[in-house]
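ARCHIVE CARD
SHELF: 3
SLOT: left
DATA:
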Amino acid sequence: MKFDLIVIGSGMSGMTIANKCAAKGLNTAVTDSRPYGGTCALRGCDPKKILIGAAEIIDRANKMSNIGISGKVEINWNELMAYKNDFVSNMPPRVEKGYQKNDVTMFHGAASFESPNSIKIGDDILESDKIVISTGAKARTLNIPGNDLCIDSSDFLNLDSLPNHVTFIGGGYISFEFAHLVARAGSKATILHKGERPLENFDEDMVDHLVKATEGLNIDLKLKSEVVAIEKTNNHLIVTTKSENSTQTIQTDIVVNAAGRVPELDGLNLEKANVEYGKKGIIVNEFLQSKSNSSVYAAGDCAATQGLNLTPVAVMEGHAVASNIIRGNSKKPDYTEMPSSLFTLPPLSAVGFTEKELQDKEISYHVNSGSAKDWYNAKRINESTYAYKVLLNDEGYILGAHLIGPHSEETINLFALAIKNKIKANSLKSFVYSYPSMASDVGSMV
């Protein structure tokens, strides 16, 4: 079978590319070894946020306890999961409907390259002038005894019931988000991280605030604790950790491998296609085209780019790849601003440079930072964790913004908009905001 374009992977980047190219008249095929929709919609941010939405209610009720709110609010895990599953189950049919509308030929199966311009799916051989790899990422394999006893984040999001004790390996965003959920659902959570500090890509000062809030939930955060083995005994798991001077064991009900994610390139036989790749994914040029095979493009978490592994970045890269396939290489992805949020409670959000990055690049800057826990917006909801750090250059342009506090995942978008459109801090300070809103605090932060 011959096509103008084959897209491997039906996540947000692949979906964007397939539909956009097909709508422009390219004979397009798409395949995925899993149901259409990708990690975000089916196994990641969307279902996760549904569960965290319930935890937000618990958090608000707890903070307002005895100051206007009485009675105990609890999470019914079975009902919550049923609601989440109903949402997720509707996504693949919606995606297929979109493909049908654009006359995209659909395949369901794992793809592997047969040559630089052909792939095999089951018994079918597909040839194409252009092939896009958008297979996303997967959980990093733990090279330790008992690795097979772990579950990953996808498994966690499908637990029929929540056990009494959940242990998370890794000090990244998955561990913190799920631990905050587990704690508010009434179970015990432990986070094991082999490094000296967790969440290494976020601002250190904001992370310190989050660590304090995390420990305040009785989440057991163990740093400099490397997991070296997991074994099963009776109805529990025993996790062995090694620190500088000792070895410890932890008894738990389940262990979640949240030690990071890596590009999912297994089984693609990239060598047959002469497609070079590394630890960060497919090696591409500024147009997201493979440097070693001009017929191949890559987008999303499987591509080695400057982009963060975020859904909006994958979509943006998808639009760039589609344009370059349709019109020839002319569109470069713009990584100027990439706001990201850690959906703990309260959330931690960031955009632009960190202080360390500015120091490493020897870029001159000054800092506006402080605690906002005594500001009105924190007091009105009895929130004790609220802080900010804004980095500006000498001309008053924002270089980076780092927030922790209620609805920071929304407020950070204003800073991203300011960075992208070169809006000076003075303009943000003098802007008339709706009040009282969390965004109205921006003027005081800059």
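SLOT: right
DATA:
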Amino acid sequence: MGKQTGFLEYARRDRDYLEPAERVKNYDEFAVPMGKAELRDQAARCMDCGIPFCHTGCPVNNIIPDWNNLVYEDDWRNALDLLHSTNNFPEFTGRVCPAPCEAACTLNIVDAPVTIKSIECAIVDRGWQEGWIQPQLPERQTGKSVAVIGSGPAGLACAQQLARAGHAVTVFEKSDRIGGLLRYGIPDFKMGKQHINRRAVQMEAEGVHFRIGAEVGVEISFKALQDNFDAVVLAGGAEEPRQLQIPGAEMPGVRLAMEFLTQQNKRNAGDDELRAAPRGTLSATDKHVIVIGGGDTGSDCVGTSNRQGAKSVTQLEIMPQPPEHEDKALTWPDWPLKMRTSSSHEEGAERDWGVLTKRVVAENGSISGLECVRIQWNGGKFEEVPDSTFTLPADLILLAMGFTGPKRRGLLDRAGVALNDRGAVAADTDSYVTSEPGVYSCGDMRRGQSLVVWAIREGRQCARAVDEALMGASELPR
């Protein structure tokens, strides 16, 4: 490393955020990038640790120490090339990835990991600013064609890699815009959608053809794709939401988190209310909002509710409250279970753990509250705490309890591929082929609900597997 003592000389610093009172006024990104000199100092903290556990902590195996060193040496162009060698879309992961690489950083043993995520984001943002990111055209066309179903991070990564290998790639997206979860599941204040749009322009220049509003298995025959393409890739999401099984859950005031988030993203994109909310407007304005589910989607609902002017926001989690700090001797370099407070929580929300919902309380046909009870966990099972029932005021209840797997109606029913015991498409991570010859699967549709960075990894690996099957060999990286 260029600065072997950097980790001793410089304290960890990360990007700043606009103050909560300022950022909740709009849906813009609010991270304040670090300056060039400060980024150089932070990159210098990457120590010559011998075994860079950050490599294995990162699902796409980013070559982190090397591009940190290039940033330290002010060689940003080569840092960008190295970053792109493992990750098609670092501007996505640099904004929404939880950074398991930082958890695996050797300096995290003393709670001061290198600010890998911020440096990654700075590298790719500078690449766009300098005009270094251009279409990468293949040297030759193979004459083979591939249909990729789904334009989330897995589908986009797979399609881009296959196009660069010289195949004719068509991406089929059922929604009105490409991006999948990136487009409609992640709020704009975490990742502006211009990042997706400019990648789409790059990919179209590379030869990728996008067909939006085209749901395979409904408007388009799956059999027709099999007949007209040399390979088909199932790269949709795990969109089947986990339902709330309590009395009153069927009431209009109990809605899915993804519907709530999608509506707001559509409004931000300029859609009128009829297009944004075909089932009726979902708004947190002047309402007591309860978010059930303590994960990232729940946090996104908190941030969106705050921006819509909710009267109060409460987030509930059935699991017990995690510890403030993990036991490093037991967990490092693996991803630890510990208390995490998101930027949305900092903007204002009550959080409660070990809570089981019992029934939705209604008055005059509208919900007015949520009856809950406290629980204790013991050996993977829970029991209710006696005399601990309580009721929270609620005008809107948002369900952010995760997903059970991909939807079977339409596409998967028509495709006829085998599913595993979790309801996801059965395919291994070597060939990515399904039970149907010539049909492959990657991303959340194959692995279940997961991270954007895992989807990118699977899309890249699946592209190599398809290329190898079509051509007998592949030069695409895994």
